[in-house]
Write a structure and sequence with these properties.
Keywords: Cytoplasm, Methyltransferase, RNA-binding, rRNA processing, S-adenosyl-L-methionine, Transferase. Its main location: cytoplasm. Belongs to the class I-like SAM-binding methyltransferase superfamily. RsmB/NOP family. The protein is α/β, with parallel strands linked by helices. The chain folds into four domains: about 130 residues, NusB-like (N-utilizing Substance Protein B Homolog, Chain A, Orthogonal Bundle); about 35 residues, no CATH class; about 55 residues, 2-Layer Sandwich (Alpha-Beta Plaits); about 200 residues, Rossmann fold, CATH 3.40.50.150. It contains 17 helices and 13 strands. The strands form two sheets. Strands 5, 6, 7, 8, 9, 10, 11, 12 and 13 form a nine-stranded mixed beta sheet that branches. A hairpin with a 5-residue loop joins strand 11 and strand 12. The longest helix is centred in the first third of the chain and has 18 residues. It is globular, with a radius of gyration of 23 Å. The N and C termini lie far apart (about 65 Å). About 45% of the residues are buried. Bound molecules: S-adenosylmethionine. S-adenosylmethionine binds next to helix 13 and strand 6.
Amino acid sequence: MAAKARKVALETLVKIMNEGAYSNIALDNALSSVNLKDDDRALVTELVYGTLKRLVTIDDMIARNSTTPLKKIENLVLQILRMSAYQLKYLDRIPDYAVVSEAVELAREVNPRVAGFVNAVLRSVTRDDTVPRFRSKLERMAYEHSFPLWMVMHFSRNYKSRTEEILEGLNERPAVTYRVNTLRISRDEVLRELENDGFRAEPTSVSPFGIIIKGGGSVASNRFFSEGLLTVQDESSMLAAPLLEPVEGGIYLDLCSAPGGKATHIAELSGDKARVLAYDIYEAKIRTIKENAGRLRLKGIEAGLHDAGEPIPELFGAGSVLLDAPCSGLGIIRKKPDIKHTKTQEELDGLPALQRRLMDVARLYVKKGGTLVYSTCTLNPSENEENVRWFLENNPDFQAERIQLGDHPNLLYSEEGFITVLPTSTMDGFFLSKLVRK
Ligand SMILES: C[S@@+](CC[C@H](N)C(=O)[O-])C[C@H]1O[C@@H](n2cnc3c(N)ncnc32)[C@H](O)[C@@H]1O
């Protein structure tokens, strides 16, 4: 059966690498269209994410051991080599000879003439223990942690001595985390009940709302999930909604809200007694907000299609606002390792202008004494603190309120009290700021 899993993984990789599909979506589609056992599903996920995660290093190895330059290798054959090199160098579940012979079989189906070439390259990769000579510390980090050099330089320029920790964090296997709907059940109770049901679960350490599933199977089919007591959410994302301090009768606008992870949290924290206007620019995504609100049985969410760049005058001064802005997503590489290969410095440079335009509209909805929470899931000061500093300079009626989440090794507090969350196994890289209208 593992052979079938490898074939599915290969097809998925091709969709991502050659057709520009997003890794999480391509993988979900692939897994839902085939009938595979749990072990094989796990293998597909491992092969796809692992290959994308280690691609820089893998390509280097293939280039060293191939007589044909990488750019000239037929696309499908290149993906076979990449996926197989990943197994040879990073997994020990499958013996090397089996990996090579499976790869040769797959290659033969693509083009019988390349089978010998694939065999030769992979045998050579198997024996290759070369440690390349690095011209700098950054080059070493790029190779060892498998990131494009420009991205390592970006982290090093902006996060200095924390660079290696960021690279390691972004390569972590993401833990399975859920937010407890404390409107209906306490976290302690969920933990107790899950333990009774045979799960191993722990509380998250920064957010008081999260649990981490450490073992015992998939909670998605558990009654807690289907009955709306739990929401899949990263721990970092659980930190945004509480900053709005939602109360009964309040009005909250979540301007970029799909799939509604934070909007539903706002509703829960208000006792589901507030209006939560949850907008997004994509029609298809509005459905996901409604589905999530429905599963959680929340009545206060009003999901709708709206471009956050277009002001809605009827709502000026209406309440408090969450702007969880579209961003470069460098903080979520653990879950979307394709970001390592798809983002460019130019793309990063273009984002602050868009984000500032959205902030400029978002401020209009904030009432006196109300709050604007600006957050992103990226590690890039120009999309994060520099945007917020620009905003405060241009809007003297707003002031930053210090966020206090306690001392945790991966939380960086700026002088103004903004927070950058460095990635760990349980937390995405994230940025949070809280701006109050005087
Ligand atoms: C970081 S995600 C939001 C995640 C969401 N807040 C949550 O917690 O589930 C950013 C969202 O912004 C949406 N978006 C991008 N540009 C937008 C715009 N101009 N107006 C409204 N939404 C936009 C995207 O479709 C995406 O769903």
